[in-house]
Amino acid sequence: MRKLVYSVFAEGTPRPQPRPRKGRYGNFYNPRTADPWKETIQVYFLMDRKPPITGPVYLKIHFFFHKAAALYGKIVPHTVRPDKDNLEKAVMDALTGIQIWKDDCQVYGGNTEKYWTKGKSGAQIWIEAEDY
Q1: Quick one: CA torsion of 88, 93, 96, 100, rounded to 10 degrees?
Q2: Which residue range forms the structural domain that includes residue 69?
């Protein structure tokens, strides 16, 4: 049986976790383009801080991208870049960074969806923990 631990809406423009890049001199580095988005997520979660989750985690995320034109107040699927898996990775890395859980390998399942909306951009994040 799962119990809801967090339900947070992080307002901002969702950014994907970029892939590592090879530098000019052969060194590898992680681009920092997602860092402001990850910091935003962390701020929203730190407002409702709880002890780290130690067991299995079910993660559900709905990303919302603002688009004022042609939606007529509806929420419609977002089928262009950024990819959902890279968006999800940025959220998981942000939450691991502030120890919502010990490691993102604890996330055994979940659901991630992307939508266009006339409303605010951001991500609704639900975290459920297994209750044994």
Answers
A1: -40
A2: 2-130
